[in-house]
Each structure stands twice: as structure tokens, then as C-alpha cells.
Amino acid sequence: MKILKIYKVIMMITGVVLFASCAHEDQPTESQLDFSVPEKTELDTWLDDGFLDPYNIRIYYEWNQNLVDNNRYLFPPTVEMVQPAMEVVKKIWIDSYTTIGGADFVKKISPREFVLVGGTNLNTTGTITLGLAEGGQRITLFQVDYLNRNSRADVTEFIHTIQHEYVHILNQTKPFDVQAWSKLTPSGYTSSWYIQPTATSRSLGFITSYARLNVYEDFAETASTILTSSKAEYDAILASVTDATAKANLKKKEAIVVQYYKDAFNINFYALRDEAQKNTDAVINN
């Protein structure tokens, strides 16, 4: 009996030694993970200095399949197009809000990530998605490769996307008066906004056809259209609307936007518009 116990102990010890030996043999001699820190390029440093360090906004321009819709044909921007595009963002969006809203405005309220995509995000309806705001934390910008910063039309369309998505982020921080807005043009909203001509939509009291999707897009389109237009340009839009009721509703929507910026953020909306236009001129003429 004693001999049997000793034999069992020997077997247990042998098993432990063999297990330890096998476990040791299974361990890789070197780590298979790459822990090396990628070397920063001159562009990376410029982006950090201009966006990450002062505003805590990280810019993603290298391809990352986790940040885009993999069911779309998308590709990363040409590296040479990244800095010119982000200079437009900095000058017209950030600098304008900083000048009128205060040095800390964008630091406190902003998306924490920009994802840049080189090409077009085409939808099955034939429409094009120019930008996306996700959870108030990320803005994705498309068509970066096609931006001509000396073209007013290109710059206006590009910055309109940012202004529009940023309005959504502001609304998530402090909501606008949805009830008051909803009473103005309740019957004009439609999911098939993309087949509606702009002139028709304006004759119904909507600044763009996309504004007809819902009240939230209506507010964002109204605000961003004014911010990307000079006073004369916006007055011309209003002058083109011949229906008295539609024009009155457009002006009422404008008034709600102006009051919202004043009450929620103590910002003079028209001063913000003028600053954005001044900075747009500076970008185009540079």
C-alpha cells in the first residue's frame, strides 16, 4: 500500500514536469505582435499640432476598415490632398466659431474624430452622401480628393457638409425648439426628398430639398445654408421664392435658428455667418 502511494506521487510529479516541459515548448521564442510605434510623418505632426493638441480632434486619413461602410466602394484620400482639405476645415469652421464663440468653444463642443475618404459615397437612390455625423463624436467627410480649394462652389459644398453635421452636434448638446419648428411646414416632409427640385421645395418653405427629410435635417440645412452664403446670396434665395407663405416660413425658420444660437450659446449668428464668409474668401483667394 505504501509502495502504491509512492508510485502515485512519482507519477504525479512526472506528469507535472512533462506538462511544464510541453507548456514551455509551446511558448513562442519571440512575440508575434508588432509593438513598434509607427514613425510620424510631417503630415501627422501638422495634424496633431493643428487639431489633436489644441482641440482633441483626431484626424484619420489612412485606411481603416472599422471606420467606414465596407459595403460601399470607398478608398482613402490621396495623402497630398489631406492638408489642403483640413486647412479649409480649420480656417472656415474652427476659426470662425473660435472668433465669434470664444477660444474654448470648439474645444468644448466638437466631434473628436474626422474620418477622411477620398472618393464618392454613392447611395442606391442615386444620391451622394457628402458627410456623416455619428453620435456627436465623429464626422466622416467624402470626396476629399475632388476638392478644389480655389473654387468657391467646391469649397462651399465641402464646408456646407461640415457646418451641417456640426449643427447636429450642437443640437445634441442643446436641443432647438422642435415643437415650434414642426408647426411651420408639417405637410412638406417626405422620404423621397431626393426627387424634389430645389425650386419646388423652396416654394413650400424649405431651403433645400434635403431639408424635407425631417425637422432635424430642416434645421441643419437652414443653418448651414445661411452660414455658407453671404447676406446678399441668401437674400437672393429668399427673393426667388414668390409664394408669400413659403417665404414667411423660411424667414420664421431663420429667426428660430438665430434665436437658438443666441439662447443656447450666446452667439450672434449673423456675425458667425460674416466671419465664415470672410474666411471663405481668404481660402479661395490664397
Explain the layout of strands and helices.
Layout: H1 2-26, H2 42-55, E1 58-60, H3 79-101, H4 105-108, E2 113-116, E3 121-122, E4 128-129, E5 131-134, E6 138-141, H5 152-173, H6 178-182, H7 198-202, H8 215-227, H9 231-239, H10 244-265, H11 269-284
Describe this structure in words.
With 286 residues, the chain is α/β, with parallel strands linked by helices. It has one domain (42-284): 3-Layer(aba) Sandwich (Collagenase (Catalytic Domain)), CATH 3.40.390. Helix content is 55%, strand content 7%. Strand 3 and strand 4 (128-129) form a beta hairpin. Helix 3 (79-101) runs antiparallel to helix 11. Residues 1-25 have low confidence and may be disordered.
Properties at a glance:
alpha/beta, Collagenase (Catalytic Domain), 4-stranded mixed beta sheet, two-stranded antiparallel sheet, 6 strands, 55% helix, 7% strand, globular, disordered N terminus
In short:
The protein is an alpha/beta fold. 55% of the residues lie in helices and 7% in strands. Helix 3 runs antiparallel to helix 11 and helix 8 crosses helix 10.
Average pLDDT, all residues: 86
Treating each run of at least 4 consecutive H or I residues as one helix, how many helices? 11
Poorly predicted segments: 1-25
> Main β-sheet: number of strands, strand sense, barrel status?
4 strands, mixed
| Main structural class | alpha/beta
Helix content percent band: 55-70%
Oligomer: single chain
The CATH C-level class name: Alpha Beta
* SSE string: HHEHHEEEEEHHHHHHH
- The Cα radius of gyration reads 27 Å
CATH fold description: Collagenase (Catalytic Domain)
- Widest sheet: strand ordering: 1-2-6-5
